[in-house]
Amino acid sequence: MYQEICRNDRTLRDYQQEAKKQIFESWEDCDNVMFQMPTGTGKTRLFTSIISDIKAWSIINQEDARVLIIAHRVELIEQISESLNRYKVSHGIIAGGHERNIQAQVQVASIQTITHRANIEVARSLPIRFIIIDEAHHSTANSYKKLWELYPSAKKLGVTATPWRMNHQGFAKIYDKLILSRSIKEFIEQGWLSPYCFYSIGSGSKVTQEINSINEFDIEGDYKISALEKTIDQSAIRAQLLDSYLKFAKGKKGIIYSISRKHSDHICAEYKAKGVNIVRIDSETPREERRLYVQKFRKGQIDIIVNVDIFSEGFDCPDIEFIQLARPTKSLVKYLQQVGRGLRPVNGKGKCIILDNVGSYLEFGLPDANRDWYSDFIGEQNEYPKTSVPSRVSNFNIKEKSFSEGNDVIGLIEDVDISGNQTQQIFGDWSSDDDILLRTLVEDRQCSLDIVASVFKRSVESIQKRCVDLSISYEVNNG
After folding, report:
1. Taking Cα atoms as reference points, which of 90, 93, 133, 85 lies closest to residue 109?
2. pLDDT (tens digit, 9 = 90+) per residue, 191-233?
3. Which of 64, 80, 63 lies closest to 72 in space, CA to CA?
4. pLDDT in tens, 230-287
5. Alpha carbon separation from 275 to 233, 264, 271, 407, 446 (Å, rounded)
6. pLDDT for 159 beyond 70
7. Burial 163-201 (b: 16+ CB within 10 A, else e)
8. Distance between CA 178 and CA 176 in Å, rounded?
9. Deepest in the core among 47, 111, 204, 464, taking most CB within 10 A?
């Protein structure tokens, strides 16, 4: 049954179409599937195509197949909603501050809101058949367990770039199967991710020694913010941050990941003193102010955004030219999410510059290292760093000066070139299968043209034109 729902969507990239096929096939045998695909390769675009297929199937079969998309942060809710609007997928939002439309076939919900005791009855009233969980590495939390209890028979898809947990307990208790996409290395070689130059401090640097001396950790196992501030938020180390930016990324658009609001303020002050147009964004920044900064950043009116975890997940700005890591972490998820923000390709971008001023690659390997995600999924602890490709790694002795001078020199660790050609997304003509589905939806099911447009992810005008070409009779009804 579920294999029949999957349609060939020629607006997808080849790996996205293959992933969609694997997901529907897996739902034949199990209910809960986790899908891994690297940051920047289009997971939101993939699940909008899955939703379109479900909508088309439900119309043809007169089934009330509701779809629920779950995210854990307001920023992700808004991003998903914008993507669904872009592909003409009508939907409701169940989250604080949003007017609800629970009649919509597709709902985007905050995990905190939909599982809150005040909303349980509303949640239970929804006949959810399919659930898509964004950033699914969070789905072991208690709130997600409530979601499983609410919809035990729904088909679930958890999507993540990093099926990894700090406590290494894995995901096999809640997901029946892991589907893997291509590796970061393959995506770079095929042109779907940007090549990069990776600079970092050495394993024997003073900064590395200071980080390794930290023995205070939070409840999740990452470094305590107070310990990081005490160790890392020093003028000497901030001087190294600025020096490496001026040497390797001056004038480029980028993101700096900092420890805390106070650390961000210190970084901003020192970069501004050198004439850099830099702003700080964190969880306390008002939403409208944050949107304004992001808009200006995308337009090139702001050079750098320094932030605390805000842009680790879900932020989409393909022309980011450099990433600077100023915050050590014990989380592989955080590391790959952060460097992944710079690996989205765009014409004219060139190589992304990654400045690892805290030596994170020493703990987790380079961005394109080979990783055994299946072992992480089932809960087998892996030793990092993972190896990268020797022919593309250039190691050399890095000169180190006194720590008090703030000059632990960073050096080139890896310079990745594109092995394949940059591929463009092609929107093809209508296929014979598309024409059959169009005729079924318009003539047999008498769907309004706006619903048909959402299924095909095309404008109403293009649907009208194709109906004329095929002599399909329709009524102009977009209600």
Report:
1. 93
2. 899 999 999 988 888 899 999 999 999 988 999 999 999 999 9
3. 80
4. 999 999 999 999 999 999 999 999 999 999 999 999 999 999 999 999 999 887 888 7
5. 21, 16, 7, 21, 61
6. yes
7. bbbbeeebbeebbebbbbbbebbbbbbbbbbbbbbbbbb
8. 7
9. 47
In the numeric block, which tokens belong to residue 414?
Answer: 């890896």
